[in-house]
Amino acid sequence: MSEAPRYDAIGRSYVGTRAEDPRIAAAIWDALGDAASVVNVGAGTGHYEPRDGRRVVAVEPSPVMRAQRAPDAAPVVDARAEALPFADGEFDAAMAVFSDHHWEDRAGGLRELRRVAERAIVFNWNPASRRSFWLTRDYLPGLDFEGDDSWEAGAAALGAREERVVPVPADCRDGFLLAYWRRPEALLDPVVRANISVFALMDDAEEAALVARLEEDLRSGVWAERNADILALDALDVGCRILVAW
Description:
Layout: H1 3-10, H2 14-17, H3 22-31, E1 37-41, E2 55-59, H4 63-66, E3 76-77, E4 91-97, H5 106-116, E5 117-125, H6 134-139, H7 150-158, E6 162-165, E7 168-169, H8 190-194, H9 197-200, H10 204-220, H11 222-226, E8 235-236, E9 240-245
Parallel strand pairs: 1-2, 1-4, 2-3, 4-5
Antiparallel strand pairs: 5-9, 6-9, 7-8
Helix pairs in contact: 5-7
């Protein structure tokens, strides 16, 4: 399923659990450097778009997501990452936040970011971390975003020169999949899961089995015993990265 149909289905209550986290936003904006014009590709409801006087244009193919953008959000264009309706080098920077793994042609979309901008940044999860983090190790062992080499292939398509680590705060305001690393009980809430694309890809039986296993591990104390080393941390590297190309 491509980005637009998926988010037409799961994005209806997106703003309820997916708020912008200011600490992650600061890292993204820092990676944009001094870019005066920015295009945000796969922009969704507008989270993480700069609001510091830069010229920002958003690209979002899902009408459900576009409808949830704030009245004062950047202007939004109905288009796809793989065919951006902009001239070569039209922007100082292009950005994509938790978006590129949904594109039908990920490499093509990443090359488009570089075509339309001098600088490009991509914020997403590096699946190389999946065996060291409890959620992906113990409950989602098959999650890898299209294969072990997908991250490296994406970095190559983007022409990335730098990879920045972005620790996720324990009280992260943005309810993406990995944000609940110290709040596992939140994933038992169907409203929380409804706005996380990984769960949208599961069939009902698979999702129910995962939830039941996590619920039992929380009830029995197995989860707390297995993850005692992270319970006092204020932030954790769960594999979130910013790729930067210029």
